[in-house]
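Repro:
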Amino acid sequence: MKKIFVILLAIAMLLSMAACGGKEPAPTEAPAVTEPEIELPNYEFTQYGNARITIVGAEFFKDEDDADMLRVYFDYTNTGDTAIGQSPMHLEVLKITQNGQELETRNYGSHNDAHVPEDLTDDTVMQPGKTVRSTMLICCSPENGIVEISCYVMIGSWVFSEEDVEAFTFQIDPNDLMGAPAKALEYEPVTNPTYTVGMPSSGSTDYPHPCEVSINGFEVITTSDGEPALRAKLAITNQGEEYIAPYQMVTVEAFQDGVSLEWLTYNWDLDDYTAEDEAFAVELEPGETADYNALFLLRGENPVEVVVEQQNDEMRLGMVCDIEEAIQAQKNAEQAANDAAEKAEAEARKQIVGTWLQRDSDWDDTYIFNADGSGLLISGPEYPFTYEIEDDILRVDYGDDDVEDFTFSVSGDLLTLIDMWGDELLLDKQAAEAETEVAQTEAPAAEKSGYPYEKEILGTWLDEESGYLETFTFNADGTGVYSYTDEGEVYEFPITYRFLRSDYLEFFYEGGSEGGFVLRIEGNILYVTNTTVVDMPLVRQ
């Protein structure tokens, strides 16, 4: 129509100029062009309640089969006084046509790669005055002209005839699409919910099946993906004469900011899934009562209203859940549990800190546990590690994904370790070295104390007898290197060292693990003694 109007206007101007003898009019200033305001279609109607539909976008896209699809975005607003049956899925299609041909619609799930978030909201329920954005997916071509859509809203009953419904029709021009909405619909926060005010927490109904139900409490839990969720606790009694499951007797919804939350229905969503979490689908015999839970994924920390409502029945039950307070209580409980675990670990560490010699060991295996969580296994070669304790489990981590778990117990000077194969290791606590100081978490620099061996120790010393070619190199600045050879591979560990007395040298591996020995130097031989060896000779290189 716009093109025709422009052509007619041009013809009129030519005729006007001809009537004036072809004389050109004096130039005038062109009038400002004002873009007309675009009013989105707005449809209001009544059908077993009230709803308002607002079309807010339309776009073509390709589905997973590369076929053309039209996605129409619409806002569905509940203008009634209850939440019963108020969800976008109740916008029903009577007929969709394009160029006289009737078109089909599609429904997408989260598994469909072509979906957008609005495609998944058709079963989202809203309280009075609240709005949810959803979509209508239509199989059609962008080349075949105007798409005409005839719809109605079904609320409260699925039984209808075309004469009974209040339908409305709107058109989408494929050549003049609005596109997708510029931004997602945001739910207005509700921090003081009022929908459930005055509702009891228990009641009975005969529709669709005789039963008595109560809402008994809630807790905030965490899903397997670390997301917060609500566990609403209910009880129901089958007062009928046939076997039936709770979900067939009542409908439970949880509303946050006036809009229903997504249900969690699969046991893999939770690490602590319980029998009550799946009891909503277990059939009850007549007269039987069962506790069952309704699980919902939370959107934030605003209060949640748990609601039991029945279509075609007056029973309405409700309860408000203070999510923020529950989450804080959960955090406090977790912190208390962590504090208790840390305290228990600290107490357990006190029991095992020290040096322990394994009985009946070919290598005189020795475990050294330090108070800072570091340690050292001496088994011919030395293996630094870190360790953690949880309950009665000792976890020893040697690095590079080499972790060993033991069940442990301490009785006096006896440490019992049971490894992952069930083998029992008995270790005896060794007496502390006299005159030694408390182990430090960081290796100190060398201390110039005038001990007679401070200069004689400098250089590299080799153990020629062990077969591992173990060497200690001591530098004048208090640093050094410990090395050994295993199957042709040389392993080196930086150390720092200091003298604690004239004949006792303490050294620290990088990372905080420590060792030490009593030493005696005779000529080119360094004799060392500790809890595992006596006078082991090291030859100066």
